[in-house]
Amino acid sequence: MSEQRAVQHWIDGAEAVGDRRERIEVVNPATATVIADVPAGTAADVDRAVAAAQRAFPEWSAVPVGERAAAVTRIADGIKGAIDDFAATVTSEMGSPISYAKVVQAGLPYQVASSFGAVADGFAWEEELGNALLVREPIGVVGAITPWNAPLYQTVAKVVPALLAGCTVVLKPSVVTPLTAALFAEMTAAAGIPAGVFNVVHGAGSVIGEAISGHSGIDMVSFTGSTGAGKRVSIGAAGTVKRVALELGGKSANVILDDADLQNAVGLGIEYAWMNGGQTCAAWTRMLVPARRHDEIVELAVAAAGSYDVGDPTDPATRIGPMSSAAQQRRVSGYIERGIADGATVAFGGAGPVEGIERGAYVRPTIFANVAPDAVIAQEEIFGPVLSVIPYADEEEAVAIANNSVYGLGGSVFGEPDHALAVAKRMRTGQVIVNGGEFNLTAPFGGYKQSGNGRELGRFGLEEFLEVKAIHR
């Protein structure tokens, strides 16, 4: 990744030069150096990609399901064989620590892609309902818009089930992480995906995202990103009444009950709050704790935080790398300063540069104690390694605080298993992890409230890309 690379669009099975000469630089956030550039795409580029997807749709949608399943399995195998390349690419583009990148940024997408073969086998593509035959058919051309924080995972979670469903795709990746999308496009070709079935158009969201959302030739938009951007996608899509699936922001609560194993709850709580530098939509950024045990839990959190080395993301020992960009660094730093100004107690980290690091988009991982439930840092999505510890008086207040958010994407509960399960059922959120339960790749993932609509992964993720036809006989 040392040489600057010129990336092009991927349209109709090959690299394609953009409609204009303007380019957008890709910057390594750890070194502040330019490593690549991509086309500043236009609506005309989107038109070309959509036309290719429309031409490819009739033939691809007619391919037997078993053959489509075999094709996405080949994509999964390609990812497996290139895990190191994908991990290194993500690390260079957005600073994800290489150890995390190998396991999660590259390894998890391989597992997700592999899981859809079994989903296809057990899926009810047709079923009888009285005198009606229900037939599930591909929705058509899908516009997929993905973020920078998990570029390969988000691409796989959208593109693989869409292709399995029989749809064709036009992808707009983030301009922060376009190299991952370029590598994935080459992999689809190697897997035998026909020309036009998968296309990539680079460029600013305000241009390419708007063009995709409102395009009459696109039948569905699947978007992951901020809630504000998701609202704009919905508005753009309304003119053509296309389906919109949104996976948006989050402010997930980690509810630690009085009967929890505190060491486990706090240790996992820090891990899920700060993984990927806190740049995950389902990060457990609010730690809700019994008021009488607040100080004890903060001490445990500070002790756990000490093992999170900040530094060069290419070093396997690094647990927190830079933020994805200088802009994101400024955003996170601003929230840390706001928390201090609003009176929250800095228990770990705080404002200012990271000691010993002179360049790059770094921030100090920070734990705030005694945070008010309605504080800005407890309500707004920061998207960085910032944890708010919020005390509660009793269980009723804990549930009320957990649900006091415009978001509802993820969350967790730690406590005696039956007790924790009962609290989990009361949380208004799309996913709750109890006592660190294993992430199930075939279970639906998505949010309540302003965290979006629709679901990804497994059977539910496949259904997003299908229409249901009722044939009465």
Question: What's this model, at a glance?
Answer:
By secondary structure, the chain is α/β, with parallel strands linked by helices. It contains 15 helices and 21 strands. It has helices at 43-62, 65-81, 83-94, 98-121, 151-165, 178-190, 205-214, 227-238, 262-274, 294-305, 326-341, 376-379, 395-403, 417-426, 458-463; strands at 5-6, 9-11, 14-16, 23-28, 33-39, 126-129, 132-138, 141-145, 168-172, 198-200, 220-224, 243-247, 253-256, 286-290, 345-348, 366-369, 386-392, 411-414, 433-434, 452-453, 466-472.
How would you describe this structure to a colleague?
With 473 residues, this protein is an alpha/beta fold. Helix content is 41%, strand content 20%. It has 15 helices and 21 strands. The N and C termini lie far apart (60 Å).
